[in-house]
Input
Amino acid sequence: MEKLRKTKLYKALRNKSGMELVQVAILIAIAVAAGIIFKSQITSFVNGVFGNLNAANF
Output
């Protein structure tokens, strides 16, 4: 019984399908945090780009 429990635990720890979901969640959290931190810089950059495009009659 102990050996069976060890193999199930080993398989559960070696399962990689859940790791991909965790990695994606961490990357999304980092992107959202960066967006919140640099919100004013991103807004001014986008406004400047669209202002230049409007001035050039693009």
In short: The mean pLDDT is 84. The first helix runs from residue 2 to 14. The radius of gyration is 23 Å.
